[in-house]
Design goal:
about 180 residues; alpha+beta; Glutamine Phosphoribosylpyrophosphate, subunit 1, domain 1; five-stranded antiparallel beta sheet; three-stranded antiparallel beta sheet
């Protein structure tokens, strides 16, 4: 078979006798495929970038939907990306949204978020994990907000605790 190639001077040249490489073999035969959810957050300049995959597995059913979004509250805008158990994360997000939107004075966002996550973990996650070790009840958030007259901040959750992220964070959860 004859192929065309590009040489060092970026010229197209004829290369008789060259054969194309075989297509890469899929890795599925060597490695078991894991169900995974991913959320990423990056601090950049005066802002924050959030990203997430769209596959959601809830009670064994897979679907696709956004796992990031934002809402307005009196002091500004709250953006989030989530990973893990979508049903429990949605429930917690509803509580966070209500807590932030009902505040009239400037609010300490990380503390309010931590309170909501703590109460939801105690209500739904900890009772559900009695004797369960696969982590299927857990969920995580990356969230960003802009404090009054400041620049955007990125925060991450781990179980029912929150911590500030200075550069980037990746949430990845896999279950076989």
């Amino acid at each position: 078979m004859n192929l065309l190639a590009i040489d060092r001077n970026r010229r197209v040249v004829h290369r008789p006798g060259l054969r194309p490489l075989p297509p890469p073999s899929p890795l599925t035969h060597r490695y078991a495929r894991e169900r995974m959810t991913i959320a990423l957050g990056f601090v950049h300049g005066q802002g924050v970038v959030l990203a997430a995959d769209t596959e959601v597995t809830t009670y064994g059913r897979k679907s696709h939907r956004a796992k990031l979004g934002y809402f307005e509250y009196p002091d500004g805008r709250f953006a989030f990306a989530m990973a893990g158990n979508a049903a429990y994360a949605d429930s917690t997000l509803t509580k966070m949204k209500m807590a932030l939107q009902q505040s009239s004075a400037p609010v300490d966002v990380p503390s309010r978020v931590e309170e909501c996550i703590d109460s939801e973990y105690k209500r739904v996650v900890y009772p559900d994990t009695q004797g369960v070790s696969d982590g299927s009840a857990h969920f995580w958030f990356l969230f960003a907000f802009r404090p009054h007259a400041g620049k955007y901040e990125l925060w991450a959750t781990n179980a029912n605790a929150v911590h500030r992220v200075d550069n980037f964070s990746a949430l990845a959860w896999a279950r076989r």
